[in-house]
Amino acid sequence: MAYPSRNYSYPTRSSSRSSIHYLILLAFAAVLVFKVDVLISQSIFAARRRASTSRNFVRPTYRRASRYINSITGFTNGTFNRNFVLSWGEERGKILEHGELLTLSLDRKSGSGFESKKEYLFAKIDMQIKLVPGNSAGTVTTYYLSSEGSAHDEIDFEFLGNSTGNPYTLHTNVFSQGKGDREQQFFLWFDPTEDFHTYSILWNPKCIILSVDGKPIREFKNMESIGVPYLKGQPMRIYSSLWNADEWATQHGLVKTDWSLAPFTASYRNFSAEACIWSPRTRKSSCESTDSAKSNSWLTEELDSRAREKMKQLQQKYMVYNYCEDPWRFPQGPGPECGSKSKINRQSNSNNNINTNANNNDNIIVPRKPRRPRRRSRSKRANKVAQID
Ligand SMILES: *[C@@H]1O[C@H](CO)[C@@H](O)[C@H](O)[C@H]1NC(C)=O
Ligand SMILES: *[C@@H]1O[C@H](CO)[C@@H](O)[C@H](O)[C@H]1NC(C)=O
Ligand SMILES: *[C@@H]1O[C@H](CO)[C@@H](O)[C@H](O)[C@H]1NC(C)=O
């Protein structure tokens, strides 16, 4: 707002004519400032009201507020500008098409990444991703939620590239309070490089559901009652990166990246979120106020028995690794969240031709960390993990 600046030189008493001019000018400025103020507060109020009556309150809040800003400044900022920052890789990450398309690229020197501006404590997020096409061997595209600190929470989608004609591996994991080792891997039922597909994370106090094109592929229920820590106390940010890991990623590191094909590019569009936005200042989430809780039906959403049955059928067909069925890695048995039925599942899986052979550790490629350079505040953890590896 254009208030008179501090070093404005006041007119001298001797010149009464110029002081009258000055007074008129001042009165005019005051009226102008007042009017603009009213206009802005009305618009912001209207935007808030519309946002609070809408189910999807991340998008409209930003969109409507920024549309107003655009109309005075001519500035257009789309979904990606509003919600994310390109966090590493310099010009390798790009926000295009008025902020509605984001691309990450990888060359011999570096990969790239982005992260959400906000932190969330529970969210339902959808992102459409089109992965690196052709020979993507050695490349890893990550899309995940993570908190900070040593006992962090994390929900992962990671796409391990492959040589031409061979399938990508969709790797998933859930960390709660620093404990991971909960890998499940899938082949997809489509070519994820040909077009955009939607990868979704529902994270609420009851469960975490990972979905592909609206089809749940993995569920991690809140099982605190049987002693499994749940992700509910640490706000998380959304991260994504494209980077090179050809020392292990593709067919256990046997297939290297063909740098003559660089740069490799992955694309993102149509991000949408319903989320409880964490305020670091008040240490509260936006869902803690009672009026927003009503409209957030996703906060109690979970799989019903039919949806769970469908998910199991899908897993039988497309899951290629399940930590719950890996006595080689976990000789003392899987975590309690796996339930007692995991052995039975293994038997019924055994006539599936892409099924894991659980006695053989060759089937799992466990992504190593760090998967990306972190922001400065996070680099300590990344370094520590790198040393452990
Ligand atoms: C537009 O996006 C850029 C980059 O993310 C940001 O710096 C700027 O403040 C945004 N402008 C508006 C009007 O939202
Ligand atoms: C790549 O393709 C091979 C052959 O189909 C498969 O065994 C492997 O799991 C695929 N994925 C990765 C990441 O190596
Ligand atoms: C964008 O995402 C929304 C919500 O996830 C979905 O309903 C819509 O069909 C998507 N648009 C496109 C062009 O795929």
TrEMBL record:
Hydrolase found in the keyword field: yes
GO molecular function ontology, one term from the record: hydrolase activity, hydrolyzing O-glycosyl compounds
Family annotation (InterPro entries): Beta-glucanase-like, Beta-glucanase/XTH, ConA-like_dom_sf, GH16_AS, XET_C, XTH
Superkingdom assignment: Eukaryota
Residue span(s) of domain GH16: 52-268
Biased composition (Basic residues): 368-383
EC number of this enzyme: 2.4.1.207
Feature: compositional bias, Low complexity: 341-367
Protein name: Xyloglucan endotransglucosylase/hydrolase
Locations listed in the record: Secreted, Cell wall; Secreted, Extracellular space, Apoplast
GO biological process: cell wall biogenesis; cell wall organization; xyloglucan metabolic process
Family: Belongs to the glycosyl hydrolase 16 family. XTH group 1 subfamily.
Function of the protein: Catalyzes xyloglucan endohydrolysis (XEH) and/or endotransglycosylation (XET). Cleaves and religates xyloglucan polymers, an essential constituent of the primary cell wall, and thereby participates in cell wall construction of growing tissues.
PTM annotation: Contains at least one intrachain disulfide bond essential for its enzymatic activity.
Annotated region described as Disordered, given as residue ranges: 334-389
Short name of any one Pfam family annotated for the protein: XET_C
SUPFAM superfamilies: Concanavalin A-like lectins/glucanases
Gene Ontology terms: cellular component: apoplast
Keywords per UniProt: Apoplast, Cell wall, Cell wall biogenesis/degradation, Disulfide bond, Glycoprotein, Glycosidase, Hydrolase, Membrane, Secreted, Transferase, Transmembrane, Transmembrane helix
